[in-house]
Amino acid sequence: MPPKLLTRLILALVAVAVAVSGAAAARRHPAPANFTASGNPVYIWPLPKNFTSGTQTLAVDPDLALDPKGAGGGAAAVAEAFERYRHLIFSPWAHAARPASAGYDVARLTVVVASADETLELGVDESYTIYIAAAGGANSIVGGATIEANTIYGAIRGLETFSQLCVFNYDTKNVEVRYAPWYIQDEPRFAFRGLMLDTSRHYLPVDVIKQVIDSMSFSKLNVLHWHIIDEQSFPLEIPSYPNLWKGSYSKSERYTVEDARYIVSYAKKRGIHVMAEIDVPGHAESWGNGYPKLWPSLSCTEPLDVSSNFTFEVITGILSDMRKIFPFGLFHLGGDEVYTGCWNLTPHVKQWLDERNMTTKDAYKYFVLKAQEIAIDLNWIPVNWEETFNSFGGSLNPRTVVHNWLGPGVCPKVVAKGLRCIMSNQGVWYLDHLDVPWEQVYTAEPLAGIDDAAQQKLVLGGEVCMWGETADTSDVQQTIWPRAAAAAGAYVESVGGHIRPRPGNNRPCSATLLQMPAESPRDRCSPSHKLLCSAASNRPWLVFYPVTQIMQRVRYT
């Protein structure tokens, strides 16, 4: 090839590469929707309801002290949360010697909590207000930082936001709060902001579940829906029926009662509920490994035997034991994908149906309603997958919460009937659907098609689902994040001075979501990048995709 032609070809290829990379950069870095007063993008995720900022930079003392006030400020949960976040903000190597004459602008964090009540229930007040070098609240300190909240759980949410404002400066080796003074007032849009974790298809050790809970707190998700049991395995200890966990994969892949209690306690300290699920009558083949009488026959191993009193005795025992572990007011009873054909093919079940003039559809309804009665007698509100509503919605207990998953348009029908709904539309909020981009996750609207204000209040919120068929300990966190954080934006971000979409409109989002650096996250390990890096903090779940880190906490120096 002639040299000139080769040169032209190379230049042409370079031009194309530049054009492509420029277009890609434009896609990676769309114009941020929200800015500080100085015109810089806001790196807070999810974006607070209301905020104002300035142009000052404040140095934060690495020996930052907690100053608790109010009836609940001295609660152990507040002190523990403060220490967790102090550890995340200040890595051991982030303690540069600051000139003695300079001092620190923020040496203490005042946390004012009005109530000492530590009850964690759905709808608990999670609101908070932050003042940093801004006058305003009764306890605000010019040149200091204050968080005010009505409950300890609001204070915990405020500590998360405060930690995101703290930036490590690579030049000075100090932690800073930029664009002060800050005033932030925030509260979540929905009371239920969930993430479902499936530990039946692939067993997940307790430490991995703890990591998921930690990462949920970073994006203010507040319900861990623990799908403990399914047809593949029964890993939970049930003292009333100790042979049930013979359905586990192995003796080393089980959760004891103490394990489950520990997970609930660990989550509560982070303001996170644990909603347990046992799926009945389908998805229950593993039950029969310990008690074969629960199977209609050896050739019909699910659904559970609807004709046997023993089946409902076992369900009562399971729920009674679990009630001692899980204090959350909602309990998930499943009810999806129930294939009832083999009931008709099992002689004793067929006889039972005929004696009652019931079809298999009638028996499905009978089973679900009977399981609901057991849960309600234990002071639980039953949650069921949407097939129950689609099949016999008019017969469901009026306290039922219907969990949408099959597609859009279900929640409007549910709330029109006066029932409550949780949205998990599989087209956007199933995390094992790897082809769904974060933009679709973020712009999905839980209230789409619901215009009546009273009916909108019946939508408890939304949930992203991490089904376990294709994810295990090696990749479960990489599959959950960053898209779960995009969903958190839809669940948390409220009507306020900066954003709130109308259903069906595109939702502008904070710069944290939109500013996605092309470099590897491992190049930016710092105490304030806790959703990107594992090298400095023993957090293996913090290494995500190299380009699309929605949850990145990078604040450029």
UniProtKB/TrEMBL annotation:
* Domain of life, per lineage: Eukaryota
What is one GO biological process annotated to this record? Answer: N-glycan processing
Can you give the residue ranges of the Beta-hexosaminidase eukaryotic type N-terminal domain? Answer: 44-165
Quote the SUPFAM superfamilies the UniProt record gives.
Answer: (Trans)glycosidases, beta-N-acetylhexosaminidase-like domain
Kindly report, in one word, the top-level EC class recorded for this enzyme: hydrolase
Q: Name one GO molecular function term.
A: beta-N-acetylhexosaminidase activity
| Reactions listed under catalytic activity | Hydrolysis of terminal non-reducing N-acetyl-D-hexosamine residues in N-acetyl-beta-D-hexosaminides
> What residues form the catalytic site here?
337
Keyword list (alphabetical) reads: Glycoprotein, Glycosidase, Hydrolase, Signal
InterPro entries recorded: Beta_hexosaminidase_sua/sub, GH, Glyco_hydro_20_cat, Hex-like_dom2, HEX_eukaryotic_N
The protein's Enzyme Commission number: 3.2.1.52
Span of domain Glycoside hydrolase family 20 catalytic: 190-488
What GO cellular-component annotations does this UniProt entry give?
Answer: membrane; vacuole
The residue range of the signal peptide is 1-25
Family of this protein: Belongs to the glycosyl hydrolase 20 family.
- Could you tell me what this protein is called? Beta-hexosaminidase
Source organism per entry reads Triticum turgidum subsp. durum (Durum wheat)
